[in-house]
Amino acid sequence: MYYATIILFMAVLPLASILIEHFLAPGADLLILAGRWFVFWAAGIRLFLAGVRQVANPAFTAKTIFEIEDPGARKIVIELGFANLSLGLLSIASIVRPDWVLPAAIMAGLYYGLAGGRHLLHSHRNRIENWATASDVLICLVFLAYALAALLRGF
Fold first, then answer.
1. 10 in Cβ contact with 46 (< 8 Å)
2. What is the pLDDT of residues 19-59, one digit of tens each?
3. How far apart are alpha carbons 137 and 109 in whole angstroms?
4. To 5 degrees, how large is the angle CA 131–CA 135–CA 138?
């Protein structure tokens, strides 16, 4: 389920949304569509749902991703969940506030980049952490490319 969620929110749903909207509005700017839908799905829905899970069941993230059995780690995971809920909600709201897409992409790109970098420094990653690492780095690069292109175009 974890792997399917990553693939859906980081690739399938954003790309499908871009294609559908491009088909419905053939002249739509692909850069705007890419920003809108990657921010909505990869930052918005993915991080919001991760936040809900981390607040409701912090042991999953502590044990499964970070391999920490100490119940005290759950307090930190809950606070991570609050950050994910906040960034996710901002990114979801950007669907109705297009002027929020670029700031959300910058914030999410930085967040994913820092998380991916931290994962890369951990040399004893398990399979789930490897997936988290790859998805964090890849989506960071997507958001970085979008932000640079948007800034160069004067968004």
1. yes
2. 999 999 999 999 999 999 999 999 999 999 999 999 999 99
3. 9
4. 140
Q: How many angstroms separate the CA atoms of 87 and 94, rounded?
A: 11
Alpha carbon 92 to chain centroid distance? Answer: 11
End-to-end CA distance of the chain: 37
User: pTM value?
Assistant: 0.92
Distance CA 97, CA 119 (A): 32
Give the integer Cα–Cα distance in Å for 19 and 107: 25
Are 135 and 10 in contact by the 8 Å Cβ rule? The answer is yes
Tell me how crowded residue 38 is: count the other CB atoms within 10 A of its CB. 30
Domain extent listing, the chain: 2-152
User: CA 151 from chain center: how many Å?
Assistant: 20
